[in-house]
Design goal:
Radius of gyration: 22 Å
Number of strands: 23
Number of helices: 10
Distance between the termini: 45 Å
Largest sheet: 8 strands, mixed
Helix content: 10-25%
Structural class: alpha+beta
């Protein structure tokens, strides 16, 4: 078990980690060095190695767990858990609105492991504090796109991976709706992206907990965004007393042909979070997951007195609609060019990439909005070595792949 946490005083979790260590599980922890919550000391006393970064101006703000990524005996038990949930008594109880997600996938688990070991300073069982890298000292050294059982998942870490641009790109991609629930919203560029979508006729809705220094809430509201402070219009004191600790956005969540996606993780939309704090964010291209998150957004939005109707039924996006297909490349094998053809079931944003056998993207052939129907594109392998390549089509939240071989 590899754990990266900002805070820890939830005793049931502390006990679970210590018990795992006692029964022979290898447990490692990376933590925020300035956060004095008592649980980290209990872990250290139990023999669990802990790496930390004591810098009063920087938060190691991650909240993620990795299970069995280092165990190569099987891949079906490799899990990543992440979200907005702090491992504290208040967050673990009923005092805050939170979200978390669990994903079973070995590739994603290993991506998180690379990030973890950068902060741990070691690939072994003992932290190497002198080699550990946090904040701006980290490198952008992980893959960012992982197809998981037909769902494209993107993963980014702050501050190394230019997460602000990734969030802005998702906002800019919205064809119909943008919805978000955030602890704080102070980043001017992201507010400008939301306002631009509103001015383009896109439905923009949000709920934000805090309205302190640098808050963009007033600007968003003045520009027509349907936004509430969490303290506004709540029907009961009990609802007002709960902290809105969410950090998620939903793009085109109720429009399955417009690449619906959810952005979630520990990432705040603030300057410090994007430029210096250690954070993580997932972008999940899934109609079903978007609808699941829409249920929570609809509940909080209704508490505020919001009047826009928000769909909350959950759909299954595992099936591929008629008319969506990526055909085998022809010729195949090829030297050096081949034609890739595909069909789209509906108008939408389309991306066609080519990856090598190591999973590295070597060329993007298509990245634009296209109409429904048949399309073709030529892939020129000149300058690339012989070998196996993978064409991957992403459209309307769905993915198709085909193998092709370059022989020179």
């Amino acid at each position: 078990i590899d754990v990266a946490l900002y805070s820890l005083n939830l005793q049931t979790l502390i006990d679970a980690l210590i018990n795992a260590k006692m029964r022979g599980v290898k447990v490692r922890v990376a933590r925020d060095g300035d956060n004095s919550t008592a649980g980290f000391g209990q872990l250290t006393s139990a023999g669990i190695s802990v790496s930390s970064y004591a810098n009063s101006s920087v938060d190691t703000h991650n909240k993620f767990f990795i299970f069995d990524a280092r165990d190569s005996s099987q891949v079906t038990d490799d899990w990543v858990w992440t979200g907005s949930l702090n491992a504290t008594n208040s967050a673990g109880g009923t005092e805050a609105y939170q979200n978390s997600i669990q994903i079973q996938d070995p590739a994603l688990a290993r991506i998180y492991q690379v990030e973890f070991e950068e902060m741990f300073g070691s690939t072994g069982e003992t932290a190497n504090q002198s080699a550990a890298r946090f904040s701006i000292n980290k490198a952008d050294n992980t893959p960012h796109r992982v197809p998981i059982k037909g769902t494209m998942v993107e993963v980014f870490f702050s501050p190394s991976d230019n997460v602000q641009e990734q969030i802005a790109n998702s906002i800019n991609s919205a064809d119909h709706t943008v919805a978000f629930e955030l602890l704080n919203f102070t980043r001017l560029e992201l507010a400008a992206a939301v306002i631009a979508r509103r001015q383009a006729g896109i439905v923009t809705q949000g709920i934000v907990e805090t309205d302190g220094t640098g808050s963009q809430v007033s600007s968003l509201k003045a520009n027509g965004v349907d936004i509430y402070l969490h303290s506004d219009n709540l029907p009961t004191p009990a609802a007002d007393a709960k902290l809105l600790h969410h950090k998620y956005a939903i793009i085109d969540g109720d429009f399955p042909d417009s690449d619906p996606r959810v952005l979630t993780g520990s990432q705040n939309w603030s300057t410090s979070s994007l430029t210096q704090d250690d954070e993580n964010i997932l972008i999940l291209h899934s109609n079903r997951i978007s609808r699941l998150y829409l249920q929570e957004f609809a509940a909080r939005y209704a508490e505020q007195g919001g009047t826009t109707q928000i769909p909350t039924d959950v759909v299954n996006d595992r099936t591929t609609p008629d008319g969506f297909a990526l055909n085998p490349a022809a010729p195949n094998p090829f030297n050096p060019t081949t034609t890739i053809s595909y069909q789209l079931s509906a108008v939408g944003n389309v991306r066609l990439d080519v990856f090598d056998a190591l999973g590295r993207r070597v060329k993007t052939l298509v990245e634009e909005r296209q109409s429904a129907g048949a399309h073709t594109v030529t892939f020129d392998g000149a300058g690339l070595p012989s070998g196996l390549y993978l064409a991957r089509l992403t459209a309307s939240g769905r993915i198709a792949t085909q193998r092709m071989t370059l022989v020179k």
